[in-house]
Every structure is written in structure tokens, then in C-alpha cells.
Amino acid sequence: MVIGVIGVYLCIVLFVGALSHRMFRGTGEDYFVASRTIGPFLLLMSLFGTNMTAFSILGASGEAYHHGIGVFGLMGSSSAIVIPAIFLLVGTRLWRVGKRYGYVTQAQYFRDRYGSDLIGLLLFILNIALVVPYLLIGVMGGGITFNQVTHGDVPLWVGSFLVCAVVLIYVCYGGLRGTAWANAFKRSFS
Amino acid sequence: MKRISFVGFIALVALHQDVWLWSVDTRVLGLPAGLFYHVGLCVCASLVFYGLSASLVDGDEA
Q1: Domain that residue A38 falls in
Q2: What pLDDT, on the 0 to 100 scale, is given for residue B62?
Q3: Chain B contact set for A77 (CB, 8 A)
Q4: Chain-chain contact of A77 with B56 (C-beta, under 8 angstroms)
Q5: How many structural domains comprise chain A?
Q6: What is the DSSP letter of A55?
Q7: Interface mutation target, options A67, A77, A93, A100, chain B, most CBs of B under 10 Å
Q8: Distances (CA, A) of A25 to A33, A35, A148, A189
Q9: How many CB atoms are closer than 10 A to CB A176?
Q10: Which of A1, A30, A8, A57 is CA-nearest to residue A179?
Q11: Which residues pair with residue B28 across a beta bridge?
Q12: pLDDT at site A129
């Protein structure tokens, strides 16, 4: 029963991601930043989805279990201050500059801002180095969750593999628009 | 509005340092005092950033 529900859920996520592909305009800008057409609702749901990962849901819960309610101050209220501050004070400016000059990645902005290909390359490498551990937490968290909700019927590696496969398909197929749509769908259950 | 919001932001960062609550074991409305404090801080943060975003939307210098 549980496996069936999870299977239906993952199929719907894939369908939503695939559905977004129908709006794809065949350009890099559309793939990476959805032609800058993400509205307030999808933006809010994407931000929510981006932060409600295994890192927050499993990691913070486990940390609070071990160390007490102080973890909420560390994770919850600090996020409530830092994320909107970065978004409003830095994000809105970068969005404006990116729209004017057609940037679709952070590395492009920094490369042009400082006139150095090396800075763009270093930032690209730094981004990858910082994102990979975060992604791995999500993959491991997916495997652990599958394993626990099915009482061990689904091995850890199968859960992690399924999470990777589903995310990979809708991200590759739908780009940012597909990701935003899938996030909106997923977060509507949160 | 924008200036008030920036002052509010600085105040939020300062108030987030809750060392005086670390050893308080009383409850407020059923919640541990430290947790209740941070819930209140989140509500204040939403008000401050609402003011900041409203000032940006109204066309103040970003």
C-alpha cells in the first residue's frame, strides 16, 4: 500500500515535470531560468521546496532530538532572517542585472563583473563543490525515508536510486520550469 | 520605510542571539521559553521583510 502510494506520487511528479516541457521554447535562457517568467506563486513554492529538503526535515529533526529546541533557533529563525535578507537585498539586484545582460548562471555574472574568466571558473568549481554534499544529503535522506516508511521493504540504495532517477528526469527534461512546477506540486502536500 | 526596515533587520540579527534563554526552563503558552521566543522572532522577521519588500515594490531604490 505504502509503496503504491509512493509510486503514484512519483509518477505524478514525473508527469508534472514532463508537462512543463510542452512550454519549452528551445533556448538556453528558457531552460536555465524559464525565460524569467516564474511568478510569485511558483517562486514562493520553489523557495519553500528548495529549503524543505532532507537537510531540514530529517537533519534538523534529528539534531533537535539530540540537542533540544535550540536547534529551531539555529535552523528555523535564522533561516527566516537570512534567506529573505539575501533574497531581497542581493537576489533582486542580481535578477535585474541578469535580465539586462542575459545572465543565466552566477558564474557568468562574476566573470563579467570582474572581467576574469578565472573567477568564473573558480566560482563554477566552488558552486559544484558546495552543492554536491547538499545533494548527497538529499539522496541519502530519500533512501532512508523510503526504507523507514516501508519498514525496510525498500533497501536504502533502491530509495536513493529512485529519488535520483525521478529528480534527474524532471530536471533534465523540464529545466527550471519543470523543477519549479514539480516543487510547487510537492510543496502543496507539505 | 526602507530605513526602518533596515534598522529592523539589524535588530533581528541582534535579537537572534538568545544566550540569555539557554538555561531558562520555563514554559510560555505550553512552549519552552526559547522556542516561543524564536517563534515570536519569526513573526517579527516576516513583518520586517514585508515592509522591506513593500518599499522595494513601491519603487524605492533597491
Answers
A1: 2-187
A2: 43
A3: 16, 38-39, 41-42, 45
A4: no
A5: 1
A6: I
A7: A77
A8: 12, 9, 41, 29
A9: 22
A10: A30
A11: B31
A12: 93
Segments of chain B scoring below 70 in pLDDT = 57-62
Considering the entire predicted model, what is its pTM? 0.76
Task: Kindly list the residues from chain B whose CB atom is less than 8 angstroms away from the CB atom of residue A80.
Answer: 41-42, 45-46
ipTM of the complex model: 0.81
pLDDT digits (tens, 9 = 90+) for A163-182: 999 999 988 888 888 888 88
**What does the block give as the cell for A124?**
563554477
Q: Mind giving me the DSSP string for B1-38?
A: -HHHHHHHHHHHHHHT--GGGTT---EETTEEHHHHHH
Domain boundaries of chain B, sorted by first residue: 2-57
Q: Is B5 on the interface with A (CB under 8 A)?
A: no
In degrees, rounded to 5, the angle at the alpha carbon of residue A107 between the alpha carbons of residues A101 and A108 is 25
B31: which strand partners? Answer: B28
Q: Which residues of A touch B32 (CB under 8 A)?
A: 69
Separation in Å, CA of A118 to nearest CA in chain B? 29
